[in-house]
């Protein structure tokens, strides 16, 4: 490795860091005494330009990543490129929604932290080494803690940030413990080498301990049960653009990492020697090892679906409702992460072991499709809630009473986004769930996956009820106050654009599916 290779691979992150520095210089050096609206607009547009530059950098990247002593440290293409493009697009959308915000006068600092956190997300998506993964996660997480506390006049913001930070510190400790055990088992921090070692040597009790600790650490990042306690307060207390960033960008980066780590630990690597094939008992034990590792994810998935959907039924705050909805969606997505290989127990151990030599992209494709479309829809949902909250002073359900009369366009956007989150056709949320559930059954047919998919479908029906509670107030129940609700033109343009994308991608699902598939077979 040389510094030219490092610069080439990290060019998107470099573009974001340069944009962050430029935002600080212009805001603090030239626009310090200007009107707040001008400062916000300039800073947000510079941030969007930085995201555009990073997207261009991804498009011109060549090669297969950064290698150190023949070990892959940072990857290009495949899952990495898909996740990085998603992170940058979602970051740009949250910055555009920031244009109409007034919760802080530290405009340059806010946009700079957003861009630095996004660069951490890019590192997380591309990392293939435990040390690099942890550095990227901490860069992302520290930015999220700061963004949550950015509304200095809000007590809820400070409380949410403190809870987020404390839970985040504990999750980092769990993750480090898990990583240290993996290093102790394999003698390496590189995921490919760890995969090879486990595939050759089989599992030990320490591997199960390491995997449980890693699931606990990353479960916090994706707000999966029982590591979800920070999410409702953070979604409710953080400034709306920051909450949208946490709910979308952080999820894309974290699930991309889970796909990478899960793909390595749940799919043993390395050549299969003749001696190993001759020992049927050894193969049976190894076969059960991969089932046990996947089973831990499936338990977390089921718990997240149940707790997230049932808790959402009791919410009167739409922000908290979206938080528990995010927990439920994390449960759905974990189904795809856990079933990247056959979990069902169908077929012989020999067939399972041989199948791990060839890549299977069905579940990974569906997971990527889901997280990208979910992130897009969630940003729009938070944008609508922010407009209503600033107009009414509340994010409670009754704040949406008569929204179709107060702002028909905003109500239509809310209708499209919430029905998509519920999985109603022909919106993109339906295809996200359909593809994911079909992939789970296609890769791992059996009683356990079938039961979990049936559970997911049933709780998707439950989710429709609490989404309709918001829509009922917007369209059916009479308004207490019929004063028109107005939004900034840029905000309305972004929200309408997101709603239009949800409809178009739902009517033509192959557009996004083909784009994702075009990055394979490079992982």
The gyration radius over C-alpha positions equals 23 Å
Q: Please, how many domains?
A: 1
The termini sit apart by 20 Å
Profile the largest sheet.
Answer: 2 strands, antiparallel
- Encode the helix/strand succession as letters: HHHEEHHHHHHHHHHHHHHHHHHH
Return the average pLDDT rounded to an integer: 86
Question: What helical percentage do the residues reach?
Answer: over 70%
Structural category is mainly alpha
Please report the number of helical segments: 22
The low-confidence parts are: 269-285, 343-359
What amount of the residues lies in strands?
Answer: under 5%
Number of strands: 2
For the largest beta sheet, what order do the strands appear in spatially? 1-2
What shape does the CA trace take?
Answer: globular
In short:
Helices cover 75% and strands 2% of the residues.
Give an account of the 3D structure.
The protein has 523 residues and is mainly alpha-helical. The protein has one domain. The chain has 22 helices and 2 strands. The protein has a two-stranded antiparallel sheet. Helix 4 packs antiparallel against helix 11 and helix 18 packs antiparallel against helix 20. The longest helix has 33 residues. It is globular and about 70 Å long. About 7% of the residues have low confidence.
């Amino acid at each position: 490795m040389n510094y030219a290779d490092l610069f080439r691979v990290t060019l998107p992150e470099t573009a974001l860091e340069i944009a962050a520095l430029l935002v600080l210089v212009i805001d603090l050096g030239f626009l310090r005494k200007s009107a707040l609206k001008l400062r916000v607009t300039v800073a947000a547009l510079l941030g969007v330009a930085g995201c555009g530059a990073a997207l261009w950098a991804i498009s011109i990247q060549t090669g297969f990543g950064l290698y150190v002593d023949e070990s892959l440290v940072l990857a290009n293409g495949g899952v990495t490129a898909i996740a990085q493009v998603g992170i940058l697009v979602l970051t740009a959308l949250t910055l555009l929604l920031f244009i109409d915000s007034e919760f802080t006068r530290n405009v340059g600092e806010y946009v700079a932290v957003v861009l630095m956190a996004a660069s951490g997300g890019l590192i997380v998506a591309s990392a293939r080494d435990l040390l690099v993964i942890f550095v990227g996660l901490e860069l992302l997480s520290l930015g999220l803690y700061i963004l949550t506390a950015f509304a200095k006049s809000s007590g809820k913001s400070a409380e949410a940030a403190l809870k987020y930070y404390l839970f985040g510190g504990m999750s980092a400790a769990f993750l480090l413990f898990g990583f240290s055990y993996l290093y102790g088992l394999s003698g390496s921090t590189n995921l490919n080498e760890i995969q090879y070692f486990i595939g050759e040597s089989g599992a030990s009790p320490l591997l199960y301990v390491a995997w449980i600790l890693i699931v606990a650490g990353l479960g916090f990042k994706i707000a999966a049960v029982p590591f979800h306690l920070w999410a409702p307060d953070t979604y409710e207390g953080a400034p709306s653009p920051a909450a949208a960033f946490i709910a979308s960008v952080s999820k894309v980066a974290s699930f991309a990492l889970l796909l990478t780590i899960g793909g390595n630990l749940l799919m043993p690597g390395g050549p299969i020697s003749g001696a190993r094939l001759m020992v049927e008992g050894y193969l049976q034990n190894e076969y059960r090892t991969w089932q046990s590792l996947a089973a831990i994810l499936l338990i977390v998935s089921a718990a997240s679906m149940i707790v997230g959907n049932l808790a959402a039924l009791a919410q009167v705050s739409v922000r908290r409702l979206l938080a528990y909805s995010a927990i439920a969606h994390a449960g759905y997505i974990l189904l795809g992460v856990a079933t990247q290989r056959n979990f069902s127990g169908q077929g012989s151990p020999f067939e399972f072991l041989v199948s791990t030599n060839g890549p299977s992209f069905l579940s990974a494709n569906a997971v990527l499709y889901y997280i990208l479309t979910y992130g897009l829809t969630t940003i729009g949902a938070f944008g609508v809630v922010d407009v209503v909250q600033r107009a009414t002073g509340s994010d409670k359900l009754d704040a949406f009473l008569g929204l179709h009369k107060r702002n028909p366009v905003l109500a239509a956007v809310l209708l499209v986004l919430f029905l998509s989150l519920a999985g109603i056709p022909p919106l993109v949320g339906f295809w996200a769930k359909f593809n994911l559930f079909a992939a789970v059954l296609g890769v791992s047919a059996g009683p356990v996956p079938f039961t979990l998919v049936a559970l997911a479908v049933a709780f998707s029906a439950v989710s429709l009820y609490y989404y309709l509670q918001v829509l009922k107030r917007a369209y059916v129940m009479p308004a207490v106050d019929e004063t028109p609700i107005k939004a900034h033109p840029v905000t309305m343009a972004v929200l309408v654009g997101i709603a239009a994308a949800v409809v178009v991608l739902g009517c033509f699902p192959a557009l996004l599916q083909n784009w994702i598939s075009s990055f394979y077979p490079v992982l």
